């Protein structure tokens, strides 16, 4: 893996890289495909086979419909509680044993979770499925924290944005894969659904083997004062530009060390830290309270509510994944062309209008054309989410905080995302049973409030130095 390929120019920095090494490509694929697939696939895999798995649960537990709804909601959403725990372990493990080894060992968690979840049917124990979902959540939390960090730190400085976007892109692709393989015409049947959960072992083994011959993060090695190993790994990744790239990383570390430490007390009471923290936490909360994961987790049921047949509802759900992938690719370019704040306004404002129209369609379901219009509106919703609320909160996380405050600030904001993800996943189906289509009013109100707040409070961060941005909060 010592070869090089082509000439690449980074669109944002204008810096030209004479070579992209095979080692870099290998390592980027190992981190993004291995981790991103686990995260995205496990988010969408239980959607289509919901009814057949619920039927199996009920045959064992013998509970009424409302109790079954609660158990199913817990099964899907408990992954987020595991995500909070995994996220909390990110800093400890990545700084303690390194980024690469953390990702390698994290795959053991995925394998254990897969065996427990897939084995639940053969043991006839529904609680094993819930336990496995919790464990795979820990895996997802670690992946979400460590994989983007590793990707950023092994990338040439001018390619960080492009390579960093790979993780989110793979998540959306793997959600689509999960939606395709889990329909009733494939593996989403009463006898085959455990295979959907055993599949997780494949990317876990792939990543373990691929990362065994991938380099460690040069930044991590510099932080551990292993300059010689950092240089050799940087050369493996960046070729002849390795020493120059490593020097830029060294300067980053020196700047960070020269700044005073930021404590939790500073984060809560000092204006230039507290205000971006509030914005970031609200961005993460608004992302989940937009209703996106209700659409991903339960899109098949949503389409059935719109009076589509079971088969057509599953096909429409696959369409959601296709639209999500295509729009995520486009959003990578839009965010640098249009800016962060305009896309947030278009996204949240557009979702408010879109979901209001969707609600009207659900109340006029006696007309078949309204059912098909509801499907179109869900697709538009996905597009609006992907260009705004989907990617920008993660981008702005590194742009609103100073270098010294960024790790602690994100350690608070990211668990907020998982927490609200859990709340939506746990509450949506019971509330839908209680309120009917009116449940979407909750998301509409949250989106409308978010649009107004972000319009007033969020600064544009595109092409602005961090000193200028933080000065706004002082």
TrEMBL record:
Q: Which domain of life is it from?
A: Eukaryota
Topology of this chain in the membrane: Multi-pass membrane protein
Regarding protein family, the annotation reads: Belongs to the major facilitator superfamily. Sugar transporter (TC 2.A.1.1) family.
Gene Ontology terms for molecular function: fructose transmembrane transporter activity
Q: What is this protein called?
A: Solute carrier family 2, facilitated glucose transporter member 3
Write out the entry's keywords from A to Z. Answer: Cell membrane, Membrane, Sugar transport, Transmembrane, Transmembrane helix, Transport
Q: Which GO terms describe its biological process?
A: fructose import across plasma membrane
Q: Which organism is it from?
A: Lygus hesperus (Western plant bug)
What gene makes this protein?
A: SLC2A3_1
Query: Which PROSITE patterns does this UniProt record tie to the protein?
Result: MFS, SUGAR_TRANSPORT_1, SUGAR_TRANSPORT_2
Q: Which residue ranges does UniProt annotate as crossing the membrane? A: 70-89, 101-119, 125-146, 167-187, 193-214, 277-298, 313-335, 342-363, 369-396, 408-429, 435-456
